[in-house]
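Write out structure tokens for FAD-binding oxidoreductase.
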Amino acid sequence: MLEGLSNIVGQSNVLTGSAAQPYLVDWRGRYRGKAQAVVRPGNVEEVAAVVRYCVLNNVPVVTVGGNTGLCGGATPDDSGRAVVLSTARLNKIRSIDTDNDTITVEAGCILQSVQDAAREAGRLFPLSLAAEGSCTIGGNLATNAGGTQVLRYGNTRELTLGLEVVTAEGEIWNGLRGLRKDNTGYDLRDLFVGSEGTLGIITAATLKLYPLPVAQRTAMLAFASLEDSVTFLSRARQGFGAALTGFEVMAGSVLQAVVRLFTDQRIPFENESANSPWFALLELSDSESAEHAQARFEHVLGQAIEDGLLLDAAIAQSVAQSKAFWHLRESIPLAEAELGKSVKHDVSIPISQIAEFVAVTNKALQAEFPGVHNVVFGHLGDGNLHYNVAPGAGQTEGEILSLQSQIYQLVHDSVASFNGSISAEHGIGQLKVNELPRYKSELELKLMRQIKQALDPKGLLNPGKVVNV
């Protein structure tokens, strides 16, 4: 097996033993697997050849990008049968078309590199998330990643025009069309995006670009309640329209934990507002001028303060201040890691019902598991909450993790009662594969299995993820 793989990608790009280990554990350290080898193909033809070789030998293929996933979707099982295929060497920016506003990149490109390439061409690639310095475009596509600007630009699927995919039989589909209108049958592109490497291996993509904003304004907002932040969001949508590009909500206790752990950071209020129960981070991107952006900002925020909807607002006065505000938000997962493992949820709820969902679920958790600590933050603008449950005072990490299945069921049942989703942007992976049957209808699961069977009849692409067959 190793000799055959070496003949395809070169001996130096077939990793075993200690060299393979970093590819066999997920970012959170929750899942550890085994593999015959890790292969690092350098182009789409080598990817296809690896897949054909593995199919010939009935060997599963698990694809890994930046390994920043949160659901174990890129980690093999512990059978040791699989070959892990790393896209790290598929890292070329193939082309940029500023007239068509598209960029074509390979799956192993780091997200930040794509952002930088777009910016150098005078364009914006708007996908933005905390792991952008290490996650890859292939992983973003595989999980249909969201991030902080979904409110304006949509998830990764909405940013994708075309794909290049290696099928489960080792054929290459070249669908790299930079077309915004292509109504010629089933939308294969949208089928592969979000499939977590279970239907095919995405090797390249043609993505949408946008004009760079002329001016941006960022503010940290303090609220007396989550209900007020939801009400203000409606006002912000009306006042800013499409210029509203980000609206992140954070429980006060969450931000206070960040500044307690990372002493170089601070909540940007000098008064009692620093102890507010809820905060939001708002970003406005204006296409006219800095003066126009500032005027709109001051009008909407000023009116909300006059009406008692906002407790306080801190407007960034420089790029450095704006980055500091975003750094606070992006440090929340790091603070969680410092505080120890928790039971994490990536859920979406209709925005109008988010405050009620949090109140109802918090109460139910305290009744069932007294003392647990709720860590609530997320992308309020698109209804996506990271609703995490951490150990409270006197509780240990082990105790909270021993309750994981019960906590999952309570929270996910609550999500379902509000017509929400148990996975907003992290995917299913292996973490939620056994949860899915509880919240998907039998018909939905049947259709998903039929699609998997049709595109991967031997079940060799990322087995055990997304849907059990």
